[in-house]
Amino acid sequence: MIETAAYAEAKPIAQLENVRLIYHEPHAETAAVEGVTCTVSKGEFVAIVGPSGCGKTSILSMLAGIVQPSEGSVSVLGSAPDAKANRIGYMLQRDQLLDWRTIEGNVLLGLEVKRLLTPETRAYAVELLNRYGLGSFRTHYPHQLSGGMRQKAALIRTLAFSPELLLLDEPFSALDYQTRLLLADEVHSIIKRGGYTAVLVTHDISEAISMSDRVLILSGRPASIRLEVPVRLSGETPLNRRNDPDFKDYFDIVWKEMAKNEQYS
């Protein structure tokens, strides 16, 4: 049976309370987010979908502490998010690897910037490389790796400082379809087995449903939550979950809600 009720757990990692965001420009104001309230619980994987330009990334930016809400409140682990803190990891659409650094050097970069590089954290980063299949590529350079491997290296760089919350901004959008499917499986496995809490922004409805525990469907700009859809599918991986008989029903629910918005493209 398909559910569409709100999802809540006892231990919130991130919360947005009646959040409003307005971008101020010299000659105008642009409302990006309007009245968003939601909670992301420990260990939960939440996907956000909505029309292009509706404010999905603005929500991630507020969770990361990069942008401050105009009204309402945003908290991560009970306090205002700080972009300089170590509790939040942000993975972008592009891997942002530095061509002149080895894969190990790129993975260690975040630790260096945050001044957390110690023998212990270096050893943990190398352990992650080995654990997730990039150990033999430690001394390679980014141009020697495939797009999927580069994105996986970017994820390991994000995980190296053990963030409490992972923010994923369309991390597979630059990849070809087959690589996208395979990497989604790997990333989902890494996040779930590692017990991480994640928020994913994507335009791909199937990706959102197959990877997440809950899908938030946003309206056009300014973004508000039109519907929350808890996802209950069998299968341990996104690829397997797409074969669940209920997958099509979930897709129809999300698609129909998206189609109500004329701005969707």
Rg from C-alpha positions? Answer: 18 Å
Strand content: 15-25%
Write down the overall mean pLDDT.
89
Output the structural class. Answer: alpha/beta
* Percent of residues in helices: 25-40%
What is the element string, with H for helices and E for strands?
Answer: EEEHEEHHHEHEHEEHH
Number of DSSP-assigned strands:
9
Features:
8 helices, disordered N terminus, alpha/beta, 24% strand, 3-stranded antiparallel β-sheet, globular, 6-stranded mixed β-sheet, 265 residues, 9 strands
List the helices and strands and how they pair.
Blueprint: E1 12-25, E2 28-41, E3 45-49, H1 56-64, E4 71-76, E5 88-91, H2 103-113, H3 119-131, H4 147-159, E6 165-169, H5 177-193, E7 197-201, H6 205-211, E8 214-218, E9 225-230, H7 238-241, H8 247-259
Parallel strand pairs: 3-7, 3-8, 5-6, 6-7
Antiparallel strand pairs: 1-2, 1-4, 8-9
